[in-house]
Amino acid sequence: MPNVPMVEYDDASPDVRAVFDEIRAARGSDQISVYWKTLAFHPPTLRRNWNAVRETMAPGALDPMTKELLYIAASVATNCDFCIEAHIAHARRLGMSDEMLGELMAVVALASGANRLGVGYGVEPSRRQ
Amino acid sequence: MPNVPMVEYDDASPDVRAVFDEIRAARGSDQISVYWKTLAFHPPTLRRNWNAVRETMAPGALDPMTKELLYIAASVATNCDFCIEAHIAHARRLGMSDEMLGELMAVVALASGANRLGVGYGVEPSRRQ
Amino acid sequence: MPNVPMVEYDDASPDVRAVFDEIRAARGSDQISVYWKTLAFHPPTLRRNWNAVRETMAPGALDPMTKELLYIAASVATNCDFCIEAHIAHARRLGMSDEMLGELMAVVALASGANRLGVGYGVEPSRRQ
Amino acid sequence: MPNVPMVEYDDASPDVRAVFDEIRAARGSDQISVYWKTLAFHPPTLRRNWNAVRETMAPGALDPMTKELLYIAASVATNCDFCIEAHIAHARRLGMSDEMLGELMAVVALASGANRLGVGYGVEPSRRQ
Amino acid sequence: MPNVPMVEYDDASPDVRAVFDEIRAARGSDQISVYWKTLAFHPPTLRRNWNAVRETMAPGALDPMTKELLYIAASVATNCDFCIEAHIAHARRLGMSDEMLGELMAVVALASGANRLGVGYGVEPSRRQ
Amino acid sequence: MPNVPMVEYDDASPDVRAVFDEIRAARGSDQISVYWKTLAFHPPTLRRNWNAVRETMAPGALDPMTKELLYIAASVATNCDFCIEAHIAHARRLGMSDEMLGELMAVVALASGANRLGVGYGVEPSRRQ
Questions:
Q1: Helix (H), strand (E), coil (C) string for A79-100
Q2: Domains, chain A, ranges and CATH?
Q3: Which of A38, A76, C32, C75 could pair with F120 in a Cys bridge, judged by C-beta atoms 3.0 to 4.6 Å apart?
Q4: CA angle E46-E47-E53, nearest 5°?
């Protein structure tokens, strides 16, 4: 159980229900995930976060698959267990293969280790050298 | 100046020089970056890290551009100023446009904010629900 | 179960029991939380941490509610699931409303996302510009 | 110098200039900070981030001062040097005293240390106990 | 259950089985931990990670116990619950006492708190002063 | 320049001067580092932090060198550039060799990378399996 009560569709206020309807339409499913039901605890956050997801993850100079991979990478780096699981599932629905996931994790692990060497040894960006 | 002395090519031991030669060949440039000259402080780390970069960043199920974008995303998330600058430069050499960089940063910022909502509200992965 | 055995009040050494007594008095409850029973694994850490909590969280230029909100914010940012839950409960006892919690999470999420843009784009503090 | 070119007001596109005008009005100053001039590199991110700042930091159940303190706390916890400096300046303009800043830092340091004890000893939230 | 299926010894490909055999020999036990069975999802990562563990954790200028303690410290600082538990177990097999573990956690907590004071107050390394 | 004014010995209040005197005696030098002069901005934090350093870093079940190495490891993992530099200097004064520093960084980098694999693949501690 999360730290705050979840809001179910049938109990939702009109503004929360409006976001839930957009999520249902975008996902092509009547189910609302635990994440969104929890965010509905604070309706302005739900609205702002959903808008940001819709705008940011839309196709642009980067395709939706690449964006999902980047989202997973950031979530692994900043420790959000739920987010990792949820966005691995999203990426799989977009066609991410096992091999792609394996290479993604390998790059994140490589960068995380190498970052520590850069930070630990005090290597500075050129603007500070 | 880093926290440890850098090793210049001309002063390098044979095993360090061997790695430097591989880096020069791979980068198509005689210049060795501050990062690698600093890592040469501990030759086994230089060798291991270079091998890992070469293997992990090579084309596979993910193309080199996608891998660079993931590397940048992980470096932004874990705060390595030097790494961010260096891998933005790598990605630009592979053809990353301004728009691609802007969208990458937008996805990382989105995920970082949304991760905190997931963690703060205590949303758990399904394996723990 | 934590990674180390918890110390129950009845099995506690005198120095641990002294801290437990202070916690009971401060909390107005005989119950000792899992956190403090676990910290008792290393009595000097229990003593130091409890003293620091008592001193730092006492009313000062900032009131206890504001301090609890800051504690939650820092715990969300650094991923301590237990700490988030415990300090949300503390803040609720001090009168934190749902709306206050929602706005707190919104600010932390905003800052976390915006921080990544600052770090990713390499914006420096004025002392380094 | 940041990792991307900054956009000056006079060179800005109409949509960037519109955001800059809102920032100038809100801040009561013609100066645009390095942060916003850098974010203008990707106009949709500038717009989204500015909207989120304006909405999230507005007075609500928490007053603007408390929100600034929370913003500083999150920025200290996630290592954004620029953000810390900028939001300390914002909070000072709202009347933050030296003593308030000192207590803020003390709470963040306390939480950061105590979080590591919770995580290191494996103390779980009650939903998982 | 992890986010990816685990590979059991009997179902493993020859290259995975080769790593598993090395782990079994090094650990003196037929059991393969959940970690390694999960890493086998992407065989090159399994191989690279195992090689790195074997080389890096071997006796050198630092003894294996000190290396395990450092590994635990880094895992506590970067929030890997599984890693903390696993490496506490490794260190205990090498003879780590309760008192050593308590002091380790105390140092990590001290550094984590003090780091936030350094970062929050903007204390710079001497190369930037 | 830090985000707050530093306190020089000659301008210090008696309680700050008392801490400075203890630091001078412990370090065997009249110089007070930038870190402590900055912490003096909030005297109770200076006092609490200095006491914690003195107690925690004293010889115990772990020797002072091992404690310094752990302090460096935690500082590298949580990104405190000043702290890394300062504690590398402390450790060198205690006799840390180049090889020891190189192995320390290698272990931290290994753990940081491997932690991401554990977190990304969702490997759970045994208490949650």
A1: CCHHHHHHHHHHHHHCCCCHHH
A2: 1-58 (1.20.1290.10), 62-129 (1.20.1290.10)
A3: A76
A4: 85
**Would the CB atoms of D105 and F45 count as touching at under 8 Å?**
yes
The answer to whether E84 and D120 are in contact (CB under 8 A) is yes
What distance in Å separates the CA atoms of residue D1 and residue C124, rounded to the nearest whole number? Answer: 8
Give the torsion sign (CA, F18, F20, F22, F25): negative
CA–CA gap between residue F86 and residue C123 (Å, rounded): 25
> Would you call F43 an interface residue with chain E, using a CB distance cutoff of 8 Å?
no
Q: Which residue has the tokens 């503090």?
A: C125
Query: F25 CB near a chain E CB, below 8 Å?
Result: no
Q: Does D25 touch chain A (CB under 8 A)?
A: no
Nearest chain A CA: its distance from B14 CA (Å): 22
Report which residue type is found at D8: E
Q: How far is CA F94 from CA A65, B41, E67, F91, in A?
A: 51, 20, 18, 5
Task: Tell me the shortest Cα–Cα distance from D94 to chain C, in angstroms.
Answer: 14
Q: What is the ipTM of this complex?
A: 0.97
Helices (H), A1-129: 14-27, 34-39, 43-57, 64-77, 81-93, 98-121
Q: What share of chain E is helix, strand, coil (3-state, %, to 5)?
A: 70, 0, 30
CB of D107 closer than 8 Å to CB of C74? yes
Closest partner CB to A2 (pick from B52, B104, B121): B121
Those residues of chain C that have pLDDT short of 70 are none
From residue D30, how far is each of D37, D45, F115 by CA, in Å? 13, 21, 46
φ and ψ of F6, to 5 deg = -85, 155
Contact E118, F82 (CB under 8 A): yes
What pTM does this model have? 0.98
Query: What is the distance between the alpha carbons of residues A97 and B21, in angstroms, rounded to a whole number?
Result: 35
C6 vs D contacts (CB less than 8 Å): none
pLDDT tens across the length of chain E (129 residues): 799 999 999 999 999 999 999 999 999 999 999 999 999 999 999 999 999 999 999 999 999 999 999 999 999 999 999 999 999 999 999 999 999 999 999 999 999 999 999 999 999 999 998
Nearest to C51 by CA among C73, C29, C77, C19: C19
